[in-house]
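RESIDUES AND SHAPES:
===
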Amino acid sequence: MTGEARTPDGETGPLDGLTVVDASRVLVGPFCTMQLGDLGADVIKVERPDVGDQTRGWRPPSYGDTEESAYYLSINRNKRSVTLDFSTDAGREVFRDLVSEADILVENFRVGTMEEWGLGYDDLRAENPALVYCSLSGYGEWGPHRDRPAYDIMMQAEGGLMSITGEEDGPPVRVGVAIADIGAGMYATQAILAALLSRELGDGTGQKVDVSLLDGQVAWTSYMASNYFATGTPPGRMGSKHPTITPYQAFETRDDYVVVACASEHIWPRFCAAFDLMDLVDDERFATNADRVENRDALDSILDAELATYTTAEVVSRCRDHDVPVSPVNDMEDVFDHPQVEARRMHRTVEHPTAGPVEMAGSPMHFSGTPTSIRRHPPLLGEHTEEVLGEYGYRPEDIEHLRDVGAI
């Protein structure tokens, strides 16, 4: 396989030696392939000449004084960029060459597009039976809605998430990041790794992976779906509150908000002690969690009034002194100044050839023997076209010809 994907100090990730051809754009596919790159795979990002991934143009904000989109930079590290025009015969032929030696292909074109180009799974596995071919789409490869366009906000709405997100008497609210894309990207990574394991334990044959944004959102409804199945009543919006635990929510303080999580019966009396509310422990309305949930409105009225008399820092201090789970509601500045975030190397910086030092969130996957790393900056458009094609046997005159015919 091409590329060893080694870290600058010689360390390798657990997927070292594997090659990924990334024909995806925007978020769901690039998020998936970034994870594979973080794990050590050599990710070859295939982009359209001149324009590249659409997110290169999603600015402002851009990074520093450059035109490097902050959005693009956030999800494209540990990749090499090659430009190919799939509308040309030569571009498609080069793509087939790349995939013929790859372990994994990830694409998120509209369903049927790759087949129209002669680049579908059945077309490519004939030459590379070991290929794990992952297709990502809004609605999946089959079903009555397979051909509909899909965007994150639609999937959050259609998959039920927005019906349970937001304040009780307020409008439906979108989760603040594109959680449908990110969730499907995570499922895709899991499925790809499972398919690789199956290949290794089996006869060496790969398979096609089909992951949709809608399926991912439906799967994420988890216990809220179970609550609906158990009661026959669709759950509604509750703000930060939990349907089966209380107090487990955000409270307004004198200067901001704070989150408290009394997730067990042992925590409840400690919480009451923290705020000199021990009379609540003996109140039969609040004796057990089930009682507290049943009498939630009465309890909320008492706790809202009490915690509003303290600052957030005072609530956090009192709770931690009594071993009660608590957190301020951090903004991005707070998050990336957080000592635990720093200790876990979740705040990273990589040097970029035009944007300079680029800060980003790190990988949450940590290994004792094969650490993840940021080996490559998010690539410039086509930065590695000559390098990669050279590894596949293309001579300088071949590459020049591909430029002349508009294939790269």
About this structure: The chain has 17 helices and eleven strands.
